[in-house]
Protein backbone atom coordinates (compact mmCIF):
# COMPACT_ATOMS: atom_id res chain seq x y z
CA UNK A 1 0.00 0.00 0.00
CA UNK A 2 1.05 3.58 -0.57
CA UNK A 3 0.01 7.07 0.36
CA UNK A 4 -0.90 8.79 -2.90
CA UNK A 5 -0.56 12.45 -3.84
CA UNK A 6 -3.87 14.31 -3.71
CA UNK A 7 -4.78 16.42 -6.75
CA UNK A 8 -5.78 19.98 -5.91
CA UNK A 9 -8.40 22.24 -7.47
CA UNK A 10 -7.24 23.27 -10.93
CA UNK A 11 -5.63 19.96 -11.88
CA UNK A 12 -7.14 18.59 -15.12
CA UNK A 13 -7.93 15.17 -13.57
CA UNK A 14 -10.46 16.92 -11.31
CA UNK A 15 -12.17 18.77 -14.16
CA UNK A 16 -13.23 15.87 -16.38
CA UNK A 17 -15.58 12.91 -15.98
CA UNK A 18 -13.96 9.70 -14.78
CA UNK A 19 -14.14 6.48 -16.78
CA UNK A 20 -16.27 3.51 -15.69
CA UNK A 21 -14.44 0.55 -14.19
CA UNK A 22 -14.74 -2.45 -16.54
CA UNK A 23 -13.90 -5.11 -13.94
CA UNK A 24 -14.34 -4.18 -10.27
CA UNK A 25 -12.68 -7.45 -9.25
CA UNK A 26 -9.43 -6.69 -11.10
CA UNK A 27 -6.33 -6.74 -8.87
CA UNK A 28 -5.38 -3.19 -9.89
CA UNK A 29 -8.72 -1.91 -8.56
CA UNK A 30 -8.13 -3.66 -5.22
CA UNK A 31 -4.65 -2.07 -5.05
CA UNK A 32 -6.11 1.34 -5.92
CA UNK A 33 -8.71 1.07 -3.15
CA UNK A 34 -6.10 -0.09 -0.62
CA UNK A 35 -3.93 2.91 -1.52
CA UNK A 36 -6.96 5.24 -1.32
CA UNK A 37 -7.77 3.89 2.15
CA UNK A 38 -4.21 4.51 3.33
CA UNK A 39 -4.21 7.97 1.75
CA UNK A 40 -7.51 8.89 3.41
CA UNK A 41 -6.31 7.63 6.79
CA UNK A 42 -3.18 9.77 6.44
CA UNK A 43 -4.99 12.91 5.24
CA UNK A 44 -8.09 12.68 7.44
CA UNK A 45 -11.62 13.18 6.22
CA UNK A 46 -14.52 10.90 5.52
CA UNK A 47 -14.23 10.21 1.81
CA UNK A 48 -12.03 10.14 -1.24
CA UNK A 49 -12.61 9.66 -4.97
CA UNK A 50 -10.12 8.07 -7.37
CA UNK A 51 -9.71 11.28 -9.45
CA UNK A 52 -8.47 12.98 -6.27
CA UNK A 53 -5.46 10.64 -6.36
CA UNK A 54 -4.88 11.22 -10.10
CA UNK A 55 -6.75 8.08 -11.23
CA UNK A 56 -9.64 8.95 -13.59
CA UNK A 57 -11.85 5.98 -12.64
CA UNK A 58 -15.35 5.87 -11.11
CA UNK A 59 -14.32 4.69 -7.64
CA UNK A 60 -15.12 6.32 -4.29
CA UNK A 61 -14.61 5.41 -0.65
CA UNK A 62 -16.43 6.98 2.29
CA UNK A 63 -17.69 6.45 5.81
CA UNK A 64 -20.13 8.11 8.17
CA UNK A 65 -18.52 8.26 11.62
CA UNK A 66 -20.74 7.96 14.71
CA UNK A 67 -20.43 11.66 15.63
CA UNK A 68 -21.83 12.65 12.19
CA UNK A 69 -24.34 9.81 11.77
CA UNK A 70 -27.63 11.27 12.95
CA UNK A 71 -30.71 9.07 12.88
CA UNK A 72 -29.38 6.80 10.12
CA UNK A 73 -26.51 5.59 12.27
CA UNK A 74 -22.86 5.28 11.31
CA UNK A 75 -21.82 3.74 8.00
CA UNK A 76 -18.59 1.72 7.90
CA UNK A 77 -15.94 2.47 5.30
CA UNK A 78 -17.57 1.68 1.96
CA UNK A 79 -16.12 1.33 -1.50
CA UNK A 80 -18.45 2.11 -4.41
CA UNK A 81 -17.45 1.38 -7.98
CA UNK A 82 -19.42 2.95 -10.84
CA UNK A 83 -21.90 4.59 -8.44
CA UNK A 84 -25.25 6.04 -9.48
CA UNK A 85 -27.24 8.50 -7.35
CA UNK A 86 -31.00 9.04 -7.48
CA UNK A 87 -32.65 11.83 -5.46
CA UNK A 88 -35.73 10.53 -3.63
CA UNK A 89 -37.09 13.94 -2.61
CA UNK A 90 -36.69 17.42 -4.03
CA UNK A 91 -35.80 18.87 -0.62
CA UNK A 92 -32.26 20.15 -0.30
CA UNK A 93 -30.32 21.23 2.76
CA UNK A 94 -27.47 23.68 3.10
CA UNK A 95 -24.37 22.42 4.90
CA UNK A 96 -20.69 23.15 5.36
CA UNK A 97 -18.30 21.05 3.28
CA UNK A 98 -14.55 20.81 2.92
CA UNK A 99 -12.43 18.81 0.53
CA UNK A 100 -8.93 17.37 0.47
CA UNK A 101 -8.60 18.76 -3.08
CA UNK A 102 -9.54 22.26 -1.92
CA UNK A 103 -7.25 22.49 1.10
CA UNK A 104 -7.81 25.14 3.72
CA UNK A 105 -11.27 26.18 2.51
CA UNK A 106 -14.82 25.34 3.51
CA UNK A 107 -18.14 26.39 2.01
CA UNK A 108 -21.89 26.01 2.27
CA UNK A 109 -23.33 23.67 -0.37
CA UNK A 110 -26.94 22.69 -1.15
CA UNK A 111 -27.42 18.90 -1.37
CA UNK A 112 -30.41 16.59 -1.65
CA UNK A 113 -31.41 15.38 1.79
CA UNK A 114 -32.63 11.94 0.74
CA UNK A 115 -31.07 9.82 -1.99
CA UNK A 116 -30.70 6.25 -3.16
CA UNK A 117 -27.32 5.15 -4.41
CA UNK A 118 -26.03 1.98 -5.90
CA UNK A 119 -22.72 0.71 -7.15
CA UNK A 120 -20.48 -2.30 -7.14
CA UNK A 121 -18.17 -3.68 -4.46
CA UNK A 122 -14.63 -4.94 -5.01
CA UNK A 123 -16.13 -8.43 -5.34
CA UNK A 124 -18.52 -7.25 -8.07
CA UNK A 125 -21.65 -7.42 -5.93
CA UNK A 126 -24.24 -4.64 -5.99
CA UNK A 127 -24.66 -2.26 -3.06
CA UNK A 128 -27.91 -0.30 -2.94
CA UNK A 129 -28.75 1.99 -0.03
CA UNK A 130 -30.93 4.92 0.88
CA UNK A 131 -29.20 7.78 2.61
CA UNK A 132 -30.29 10.95 4.39
CA UNK A 133 -28.61 14.06 5.70
CA UNK A 134 -24.83 13.72 6.27
CA UNK A 135 -24.70 10.24 4.72
CA UNK A 136 -26.42 11.60 1.59
CA UNK A 137 -24.14 14.66 1.59
CA UNK A 138 -20.88 12.70 1.70
CA UNK A 139 -21.97 10.33 -1.07
CA UNK A 140 -23.02 13.24 -3.30
CA UNK A 141 -19.76 15.09 -2.58
CA UNK A 142 -17.57 12.12 -3.48
CA UNK A 143 -19.59 11.18 -6.56
CA UNK A 144 -19.37 14.78 -7.81
CA UNK A 145 -15.62 14.18 -8.18
CA UNK A 146 -16.43 11.44 -10.69
CA UNK A 147 -18.19 14.00 -12.88
CA UNK A 148 -15.47 16.65 -12.65
CA UNK A 149 -17.29 18.81 -10.10
CA UNK A 150 -15.84 20.30 -6.91
CA UNK A 151 -18.03 21.63 -4.11
CA UNK A 152 -17.35 25.35 -4.85
CA UNK A 153 -19.08 24.79 -8.22
CA UNK A 154 -22.24 23.73 -6.35
CA UNK A 155 -22.25 26.72 -4.01
CA UNK A 156 -25.07 29.22 -4.47
CA UNK A 157 -23.59 31.93 -2.21
CA UNK A 158 -19.84 32.47 -2.52
CA UNK A 159 -19.90 34.78 0.51
CA UNK A 160 -20.09 31.49 2.45
CA UNK A 161 -16.72 30.27 1.13
CA UNK A 162 -14.19 30.68 3.94
CA UNK A 163 -10.76 29.68 5.08
CA UNK A 164 -11.13 26.91 7.67
CA UNK A 165 -8.64 28.69 9.93
CA UNK A 166 -10.82 31.83 10.00
CA UNK A 167 -13.88 29.84 11.09
CA UNK A 168 -12.45 29.76 14.63
CA UNK A 169 -13.64 33.38 14.84
CA UNK A 170 -17.21 32.27 14.17
CA UNK A 171 -19.14 30.84 11.25
CA UNK A 172 -21.44 33.11 9.28
CA UNK A 173 -25.14 32.25 9.51
CA UNK A 174 -26.53 29.99 6.82
CA UNK A 175 -29.69 31.33 5.26
CA UNK A 176 -31.79 30.04 2.39
CA UNK A 177 -30.80 31.52 -0.95
CA UNK A 178 -34.19 31.19 -2.58
CA UNK A 179 -33.57 27.89 -4.38
CA UNK A 180 -36.60 25.61 -4.45
CA UNK A 181 -36.29 22.85 -1.89
CA UNK A 182 -33.58 24.53 0.19
CA UNK A 183 -33.76 25.41 3.83
Would you mind describing this structure in some detail?
The structure is a single chain. The protein is of the alpha+beta class. The chain has three helices and eight strands. The chain is 19% helix and 30% strand. Strands 1-2-3-6-7 form a five-stranded antiparallel β-sheet. It has a three-stranded antiparallel β-sheet with strand order 4-5-8. The radius of gyration is 16 Å and the shape is globular. The model is unreliable at 177-183 (pLDDT under 50).
Question: What would you call the structural class?
Answer: alpha+beta
Largest sheet: 5 strands, antiparallel
Oligomer: single chain
Beta fraction: 25-35%
Helix-strand sequence: HEEEEEEEHHE
Number of beta strands: 8
Global geometry: globular
- Give the neighbour order of strands across the main sheet: 1-2-3-6-7
> How large is the count of helical segments?
3
Helical coverage, percent range: 10-25%
Uncertain regions: pLDDT < 50 for 5+ in a row? 177-183
Distance between the termini: 42 Å
Return the average pLDDT rounded to an integer. 93
- Rg (C-alpha, Å): 16 Å
Amino acid sequence: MAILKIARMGHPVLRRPAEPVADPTAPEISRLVADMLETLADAGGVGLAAPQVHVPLRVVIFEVPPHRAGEGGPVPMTCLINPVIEPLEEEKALGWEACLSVPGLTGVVPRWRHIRYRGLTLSGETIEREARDFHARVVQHECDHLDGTLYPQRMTDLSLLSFVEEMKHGAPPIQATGMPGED
